[in-house]
Design brief:
heterotrimer, A mainly alpha, B mainly alpha, C mainly alpha, A: mainly alpha, B: mainly alpha, three-stranded antiparallel beta sheet, 3 strands, about 60% helix, globular
Chain lengths: ~90, ~170, ~100
């Protein structure tokens, strides 16, 4: 079981890295905001797996706070920092 | 009439107290010594929520029945999105459609929008006075009927009298 | 190996499949709206399966409940944020792809 958790956590980390490519590339500002969604789910899953691997239940609280912060930062960005000009290429 | 209203708001307060207590129990992972903080927090939160969120009657049986429906829809829809993403030809036929909402109250509408965005295949993009702009991943599917069923279920959960189905 | 362990393994692998699909969709789908579909929906289902798989292994009901609570929180946040992103993109005239 331990090995499965570790392999899965690494697999999700690779997913997160692959997803980062889209965040960096864009093209629209909206694409970059997908980062909050990506971290909101993938990073939470990784943290929960780590909590299981290390038997460190406090990491579940970290996951909980992560989920909350991902939402709050995304809302703040959408409401305040989204440039008006549409830079959409497709 | 006034008496009924009073009973409704007391039962609503009781429900909120129970739900927030369960929430505290889960958050503290059953640590009984944490109730020194938990009990006042639950009481204050219930009081505040009574002020901020008006009493809403809920059909609990319909809500319980909604859970397996939601889980099943998520799995089936999620699998559909997954196969589309992995298919070499990328078989997408997205479209932006207008859906006329019949749900009369604001809270039920917001819940409906959340559910549309959670169930795979549809994504709410904008809300207007009487319609919703919904982005559909597969415009060949029977999405109008599915949205109608979802709306029906939500109106049952919130005890809203049945309306003639205009959308299907 | 116990039945609970087998169930956990199946659920975790299922979850990994949906996460992979979400990432592939994020990279391959043609516009912001379809990418939102891929990322939000697939990852939510994936997280749901992983959370259920871990909840089976939890020591207490409260611990299992906490895992489910985290998932519900992610769902709620994800739905709200994906509406805001899609709505903002539409308002700023980000074109949507059509076959």
């Amino acid at each position: 079981m331990q090995n499965l958790y570790i392999i899965l956590a690494l697999f999700l980390l690779l997913n997160l890295l692959a997803g980062m490519w889209r965040i960096l590339k864009g093209p629209a500002a909206a694409d970059r905001m997908l980062a909050s969604q990506l971290f909101g789910t993938t990073a939470v899953a990784i943290l929960l797996l780590l909590a299981q691997i290390e038997s460190l239940m406090a990491l579940r609280d970290v996951a909980l706070v992560f989920a909350l912060l991902a939402a709050i930062t995304a809302i703040a960005f959408v409401r305040r920092n989204w440039p008006q000009e549409p830079d959409d290429a497709g | 009439m006034n008496r009924l209203k009073l009973i409704n708001s007391w039962s609503s307060l009781l429900t909120r107290l129970i739900m927030l207590s369960v929430l505290w129990w889960v958050l503290s992972v059953g640590d009984s010594s944490s109730w020194w903080i938990g009990l006042p927090a639950v009481l204050i939160a219930s009081g505040v929520s009574m002020r901020l969120q008006p009493v809403q009657s809920v059909n609990w049986i319909a809500l319980l029945r909604f859970i397996p429906f939601f889980v099943w829809q998520s799995l089936v829809g999620g699998f559909g999105v997954a196969t589309r993403a992995m298919h070499p030809a990328l078989p997408l036929t997205p479209d932006l459609v207008e859906y006329p909402v019949t749900l009369p109250n604001e809270f039920a509408r917001v819940v409906f929008i959340y559910m549309i965005s959670l169930i795979p295949g549809s994504l709410c993009v904008a809300m207007h006075r009487d319609t919703l702009s919904i982005h559909i991943l597969d415009s060949h599917s029977n999405f109008l009927a599915e949205l109608g069923i979802l709306e029906q279920k939500i109106s049952t959960i919130f005890c809203i009298p049945q309306q003639p189905l205009s959308a299907v | 190996m116990m039945l609970a362990d087998i169930l956990t393994i199946i659920l975790l692998l299922g979850g990994a499949f949906f996460f992979l699909a979400g990432t592939i969709g994020l990279l391959r789908f043609p516009d912001v709206y379809t990418r939102l579909h891929a990322l939000t929906k697939a990852d939510n289902v994936g997280l749901g399966l992983i959370v259920t798989g871990l909840a089976i292994q939890a020591q207490s009901w409260a611990a299992a409940g906490k895992l489910i609570l985290i998932w519900l929180l992610v769902l709620l946040a994800g739905a709200g944020v994906s509406y805001l992103i899609a709505n903002g993109a539409l308002a700023r005239g980000v074109a949507f792809w059509k076959r």
